[in-house]
Amino acid sequence: MVSGDSAVSSSGMNPPHIAPRQGIFVNRTINFRSIKAIGYDMDYTLVHYHAAAWETAAFAYAKANLLEMGYPVADIEFDPQTVIRGLAIDLEEGNLVKATRFGYVIRASHGSTFLGYDQVRRSYAGTLVDLAEDRFEFVNTLFSLSEASLYAQLVDLMDAGKIEKGIGYRGLYQAVVQSLDGAHNEGSLKQAILAAPDRFVDLDPDGVMALVDQFKAGKRLMLITNSEWEYTVRIMEYAFDPFLPAGMSWRDLFAAVIVSADKPSFFTSNKQLYKVVDEGAALLRPHIGEIEPGSVFHGGCAAQVEAFLGLSGDEILYVGDHLFGDVHFSKALLRWRTALILRELESEVDGLLEFRPHEQELERLMASKSELEAEMSAVRLALQRTRLGYADPPAGVVADKERLDAIRSELVAIDEKITPLAIAASRLRNEAWGPLMRSGIDKSLFARQVEKYADCYTSRVANFANVSPFALLRASRVDLPHDTWIE
């Protein structure tokens, strides 16, 4: 275990006994010794689910709802490999798109049919993906995978003439949202989970120990979840109680529990707080005054949490899996410290490690290509100056047509080696869409949002057990493009 004075860096300098997939990656330095309270989301944060099982079930419930609404979806199926978090849904074009951090689209599918390079270029030559526009919906959580899959397949059905075109691509998305909201609000999916938790829940004893460490270190823990009380208590008992020290239950860890929080509005508005006065029957009573220690509350707002804790801003860390519902608003409005849970990081980091020898070869080839391209440009300029006679060639450069032809041949040969490696790099983790955090050689739009709003990110809460509740999580120096010239 790491000592209280140790530091963890975002550059991979996690404790040496920790596998890279268990790393904590730091955008902004966090001194855990100055964190007095930690709030946790539950679903996909404290409690992990088998995403394929969850989303397959959600897809099935939504599909049933769509059938009742008259949509011809009897034959469609959910394939988790066809969608990833971080895509944007283009409601005008009926497309799923993957963009760079600057909003440039590099990959797109119309419905489930991928567009070629020229098609993408024509469709998005003058368009940047701006998440502030209502044209785009961001697939920013694992709960959104079934939504994206449903939407793509409905677009296919509309294009095939099986759905009236008058509803439009935007109308299809609204139908998908309605069908999924129905599944969740009716409680059908959660009842299925409670009936067979071993099928859906990925138990993580180390995550429980991470919270015990924090609790014993004097951190005040809060559970703030959008799930209702009846579901929360049963899932937390299943996921936490078997792994706690003798005589301890999950309730003992938390200074207070807030259910049905309705994030993100929990962070943005003042709402009525209700106390769960009969936990067995989930009976509510309007609550006036402060949050009471050890109690269960329904609704409320972040201002009441700060008043209860007597803390604000960077004294509070909030940990969640939803990029906007959890970390965006808690960071942007309240200036809480934030940690984002990204389960996909484990497979992404594993893929990067496996690909590393090929990545090094790709970097070597790209460096050679850059040198040849620079030489080719210099020779072309030398030939131009010589031909037009307005200046001498650049110093040390010969106006040699044969050398120019030779460079072109060398570049063709290098490109033949680069192409398969570049294609393989673009397909890491997901054959269709590639890595979560990269779009081509750039950061993905999703990665940019993570960078902007999450002070740190990691694959699961359990990873905090590796660095202790007293660690200094230090961000590494960020290189700028001009830094490479002076290395």
Structural domains: how many: 3
Poorly predicted parts: 1-6
CATH topology of the largest domain: Rossmann fold
What is the number of E strands?
22
Helix/strand/pairing class, anyone?
Answer: alpha/beta
Report helical residue fraction: 40-55%
| Main β-sheet, spatial strand arrangement | 2-21-18-17-4-12-13-16-14-15
For the biggest sheet, the summary is: 10 strands, mixed
Q: Which features characterize this protein?
A:
about 475 residues, alpha/beta, Rossmann fold, 3 domains, ten-stranded mixed beta sheet, about 15% strand, globular
Could you give a quick summary of the protein structure above?
With 487 residues, the chain is α/β, with parallel strands linked by helices.
Would you mind describing this structure in some detail?
The protein has 3 domains: 34-49 and 198-341, 3-Layer(aba) Sandwich (Rossmann fold), CATH 3.40.50; 51-195, no CATH class; 345-481. The protein has helices at 51-68, 117-124, 145-159, 168-185, 188-195, 197-200, 205-216, 229-239, 265-268, 302-309, 323-332, 345-388, 401-426, 445-453; strands at residues 7-9, 24-26, 30-31, 37-40, 48-49, 88-90, 95-99, 105-110, 113-114, 136-138, 201-202, 220-224, 254-259, 273-278, 283-286, 296-299, 316-320, 337-341, 438-439, 442-443, 456-458, 472-474. Helix 3 (145-159) packs across helix 4 and helix 12 runs antiparallel to helix 13. The longest helix is centred in the C-terminal third of the chain and has 44 residues, at 345-388. The strands form 5 sheets. It has a 10-stranded mixed sheet with strand order 2-21-18-17-4-12-13-16-14-15, sandwiched between helices. Strands 9-8-7-6-10 form a 5-stranded antiparallel sheet. A 3-stranded mixed sheet has the order 1-22-3, with no helix packed on it. With 487 residues, it is of the alpha/beta class.
